Amino acid sequence: MSSHSNRLAIETRAIHAGQEPDPLTGAVVQPIYTASTYVQEGIGQNKGYMYSRSKNPTRSTLEACLADLEGAKRALAFPTGLSAAACILELLDAGGHVVAHHDVYGGIYRLLAKVRNRTAGLKVDFVNFSDIEAVRRVVTPATKMLWFETPSNPLLEIVDIASVAEIAREVGALTICDNTFSSPYCQRPIELGVDIVMHSATKFLNGHSDLLAGVVALSDKLPDEVVDELVFLQNSVGAVLDPISCSTLLRSIKTLAVRMDRHIENAAAISAYLDEAQTQLRIERLIYPGLKTHPGHEIAKRQMKGFGSIISFAVEGGEERANRVAQDLQLFAYAVSLGGVESLVQHPASMTHKVLPVARRQQLGVTDNLLRLSVGIENVDDLIADLRHALSR
Ligand SMILES: *Cc1c(COP(=O)(O)O)cnc(C)c1O
After folding, report:
1. 153 lines ligand 1 (CB under 6 A)
2. Of 157, 326, 342, 366, which has the fewest Cβ atoms less than 10 A away?
């Protein structure tokens, strides 16, 4: 279905891609195949399935849908975003040089700087990918991978995707874009020249805060050997998404477009309110790529549809006031994660980015007075009233 469905709009593909009615029963929703093993007809004879770690029909359906949405040759479903990231890193030989964005998700930083540098000898340089010349300066012919996210977490820095892909091509390195904050509805990095897209599908793709999942999507420009190698690696490390979660995620993706439209609309209205009332609400720094004052605004406008639904801001009054604001919010639950239908607020310095050394955090701008909102799809006037109340006290 994928080559045909690429001509249809993403709203349509989110519902139909990879999913034909079940030939056995006509069921319009894909069956959940819980079997771990499959009867074989003889030596070397089977229906394409042998053991569910290697291949499972429900997972295959989800992967076909995800590949279609990202414009990818192939997608693979993992139990978490981090297991997807870890499997991508298995593509590298020991000692490889990786250049990563300085403001990557805390868990990706931990995996690179505290695990794989020790267990695989990876040499990792962290630079600011929103400064394309800075990337060019650290990349060498020995560089194997360029790893970034855009918008980044929690500072919402915007990376020029096509320019990074071009630098990588010059030295023969792979580009990995963590597309978690945008979802394929807002941004499709493979179309801009990226080799591999990864997701924490725990966030917008699932969107209901009720499962963990990860995705790897591979560009059709990659040689088949790289795609085959990643399939081999996933089977080798055994990191596969279970069929019930595959089915739940397939269902969630059907509403991706309508959820994202509302997420984006709400975040735009909230950022406009906070911008206008910034002095009164004693907000020291407001960060949202949709604001014209955001340094990456023009690039975001070019490569994204909408500006996402994450807003970060630093309050006057330090950590103490940040904590009070977070606790005074009623509709924004004080919790990590993002991308669900419900609004959340979190404190990066003590939560998602606690793993960063203090000096590094300060230097980046992940200050003690910084809060990050994940704007949900509730009524926007209710959300604004909640923010006004918590920030006016
Ligand atoms: C949450 C997140 C991850 C990690 O994904 P898990 O599903 O929690 O393992 C990676 N990158 C980004 C940008 C995230 O927000």
Report:
1. yes
2. 342
